[in-house]
Design a protein that fits this description.
The complex is a heterodimer of chains A (240) and B (454).
Chain A: E1 6-13, H1 21-27, E2 31-39, H2 46-70, E3 75-82, H3 85-95, E4 100-103, E5 112-116, H4 123-136, E6 140-146, H5 155-168, E7 176-181, H6 186-193, E8 199-203, H7 209-214, H8 217-224, E9 229-232
Parallel strand pairs in A: 1-2, 1-4, 2-3, 5-6, 5-8, 6-7, 8-9
Antiparallel strand pairs in A: 4-9
Helix pairs in contact in A: 6-8
Chain B: H1 11-22, H2 25-28, H3 30-38, H4 42-66, H5 72-115, H6 123-140, H7 146-170, H8 183-194, H9 203-206, H10 214-243, H11 246-251, H12 262-271, H13 273-298, H14 300-307, H15 326-342, H16 345-373, H17 389-403, H18 407-428, H19 436-448
Classes of the chains: A alpha/beta (240), B mainly alpha (454).
Chain lengths: 240, 454
């Protein structure tokens, strides 16, 4: 199984926070799309903003991209001016064919990675991405599942299959731990538990009605923790 | 680095955007002014005004899909007919929106005083204060508040519906007597004055690029939102006429002029003091939102003209600190405050409508120019139905309305044309060398017809 991953790394210009060096390291072997989103208020037409700030923004983006390039990662750069940040990220993700989106966060080191698994959905892609991260950095990983899955495979079997997949990809079994929780509210506990780790990898979820009110699980999790998170898109179901 | 937007606005979203841009001073402030011109037949005036706006809405929607840049009306007319007409249209559109915003703010002040026991003489002071606040907010920059907008639209439509339903029981049929008393010319004059009530429909043009399935949803969105608003205006204005003593409508405003709070005047009869308060709150919400959107949108005209070398380049500069086009907003703000301070309220409304009619008429001509010229770069993804008859009706109807408005609005419109020409000769001509699609047509004429041209 060799899925190649293309990761979208968004920056909020101007004066973006640079990425923690350890994250640059984890991504060194992947295809990177760096998106600089230059936030403009409603009053400013994007074309006027581009005219005036493009030079500065391009220079800033080059500084941000530098570490990736010196780490040897192939980088594509996009610079967008406008107000709708989330919408821009979604659009560029699809245009550039990215399957993973980084939600930036601060972390000094990556030692404990947290991977909640919901079920069969998106299973292969999440694990292939996790395996690739684990070959780049020396971290432990916690595979997590709560009782109420979205399909019928029991939680234990799911976590066992995930472990096998990682071991098969060359990750030492001593680095992998499993955590099965019988709890109704998967979203909430993921959001709470994730705070104890320094890197998260999550599957994208289709927003349900509940999500539309409370925010999707990835959105809740990333709001709840300082740690960076990779959101793996469900590419197969998006019809690509 | 493409800037193209995703098409994710469906028909419903398109309709609410359009309605949100229309609801405001047209229904909360203008009915009494129309009433003084047409009597109870002001109801028909709203219908007529809507029909004359429609062609321009369709024309602008088509041009918007061919030129998805910021600048709107100004840009289409400039690219169609060259920088001279562009200058006239840019100044006209800017003035019209600023006049409309200042009128909305004066109305807002009048409604505010219904809630707070202060002297009526303070309306202008309150309006000036609010205008200053809105300008500052726009300079500092605001987050997009589409959600707030749709909540306001829903609240306003519900309040208007409740108002009409309630009024059904309290209306005095005798108030509709004298329906034909002011005659057809009264209706036409009133229609010209309330024209600006529908101007918001062209907001659809500014989001045309984000509308999915534009060939279906653009014309449908325009037609449905116009239909709904024509109906809503008609029944609300009918309720206002039926509820109020004509004398109150015509003379209870500042210095004996038409009332600025016609919705609230009759509301007292429905639910007593509470009715007045509810209507006042709804009116304040709608008018604030309209004035704010007006300042934001109108500052785009000096900005776009400046980017095209038709106005000093400083007007296009985006402030590093606030990341807003501060100078364009401030210029707009100065005009806004001056208008509120020095121009009588009723004239504000008349001039706003007169300038709008002028610009809308030129928009219809601009579409005809684009289609006739067949320039390569003009590739609209939506084509307005009924071309060219609809556009001709729009132009003729517009000028018919304009001629019925009395001396001052006609002078105002003429002043914009003369002023635009003057500004172009003094500033723009030496700095521009484009001639628009019209130039293509004229050049072709000369090539085809070298002999008979003398």
């Amino acid at each position: 199984m060799s899925v190649t991953h293309r990761v979208l790394v968004p920056f909020e210009l101007p004066d973006a926070d640079p990425l923690p060096p350890v994250l640059v390291e984890t991504l060194a072997a992947m295809d990177i799309v760096v998106l600089g989103h230059y936030g403009l208020p409603e009053q400013t037409p994007p074309s006027a903003g581009r005219d005036q700030f493009e030079v500065d923004a391009t220079a800033e983006l080059e500084d941000l991209t530098g570490p990736f390039e010196s780490a040897g990662a192939p980088v594509t750069t996009r610079l967008v001016f406008g107000k709708a940040r989330a919408k821009t990220i979604d659009r560029v993700t699809i245009e550039e064919g990215c399957d993973v989106i980084l939600t930036p966060g601060q972390t000094a080191a990556v030692e404990r990675m947290f991977v909640p698994l919901r079920g069969e959905e998106n299973f292969d892609r999440i694990l292939s991405f996790v395996a690739e991260l684990l070959t780049e950095i020396d971290a432990s990983v916690t595979l997590f599942h709560t009782g109420e899955g979205f399909d019928r495979r029991p939680g234990e079997k799911l976590l066992a299959a995930a472990t096998d997949r990682l071991v098969g990809a060359g990750v030492g079994s001593n680095r992998i731990s499993r955590w099965l929780l019988k709890d109704e509210d998967a979203g909430r506990s993921i959001a709470d538990l994730g705070a104890a780790f320094d890197l998260l990898v999550l599957g994208e979820t289709e927003p349900s009605l509940r999500d539309r009110i409370l925010g999707t699980v990835p959105a809740q999790v990333t709001a709840n923790t300082e740690a960076p998170a990779f959101v793996v898109r469900n590419v197969e179901e998006s019809g690509e | 680095m493409s800037d193209d937007l995703e098409r994710d606005l469906g028909l419903y979203a398109t309709i609410t955007i359009s309605m949100g841009a229309m609801i405001g001073s047209g229904i909360f402030v203008l009915p009494a002014l129309g009433f003084t011109k047409a009597g109870p037949a002001v109801i028909l005036a709203y219908l007529l005004a809507g029909l004359v706006v429609l062609p321009a809405a369709l024309s602008k929607a088509e041009m918007a899909t061919a030129m998805p840049e910021s600048g709107g009306t100004y840009l289409y007319i400039d690219r169609a007919m060259g920088p001279l007409f562009g200058t006239i249209a840019g100044i006209g559109a800017w003035f019209s929106l600023v006049f409309k915003s200042s009128f909305a703010l004066v109305g807002l002040g009048a409604y505010l005083l219904l809630l707070v026991p202060l002297s009526g003489g303070l309306v202008k002071a309150v309006a000036l204060g609010l205008a200053g606040l809105i300008v500052v907010l726009n300079v500092v920059g605001t987050e997009q508040s589409g959600k707030a907008q749709s909540i306001i639209v829903t609240a306003v439509v519900m309040a208007l519906a409740a108002y009409v339903l309630n009024a059904g029981f309290a209306v005095d049929p005798a108030r509709f007597d004298g329906f034909t008393q002011k005659g057809a010319s009264g209706v036409v004059t009133a229609a010209a004055f309330v024209f600006v009530s529908y101007a918001g429909v062209t907001k659809i043009a500014s989001v045309a690029e984000e509308i999915e399935n534009p060939n279906r949803n653009l014309p449908l969105g325009i037609l449905i939102s116009m239909g709904v608003m024509i109906l809503l205006y008609t029944v609300v204005v009918a309720a206002i006429v039926g509820l109020n003593d004509p004398a109150v409508l015509s003379t209870s405003g500042p210095s004996g002029g038409p009332s600025l709070t016609p919705m609230a005047d009759g509301a007292g009869q429905l639910l007593g003091g509470l009715g007045v308060a509810v209507i006042a709150v709804v009116a304040i919400l709608a008018l604030t939102s309209m004035a704010n959107a007006g300042v934001l949108a109108s500052s785009r005209f000096p900005l776009a003209m400046s980017r095209d070398s038709l106005a000093p380049s400083g007007l296009a500069r985006v402030s590093k600190r606030f990341q807003t086009p501060r100078n364009a907003i401030l210029a707009t703000g100065v005009l806004l405050l001056a208008l509120i301070a020095f121009v009588p309220v009723v004239e504000l409304a008349k001039l706003a409508s007169a300038f709008k009619i002028l610009v809308f008429s030129i928009s219809n001509v601009a579409l005809i120019v684009f289609r006739t010229s067949g320039v390569e770069s003009y590739q609209p993804s939506f084509r307005a139905p009924g071309y060219p008859y609809v556009q001709v009706v729009g132009v003729v109807g517009g000028f018919a309305l304009l001629t019925q408005m009395g001396t001052l609005p006609i002078l105002g419109a003429a002043g914009i044309i003369v002023g635009g020409i003057g500004w172009y000769l003094a500033y723009g001509r030496s700095r521009t060398d484009r001639d628009g699609a019209l130039g293509v047509i004229l050049a072709r004429r000369r090539d085809e017809d070298p002999v008979t041209s003398d």
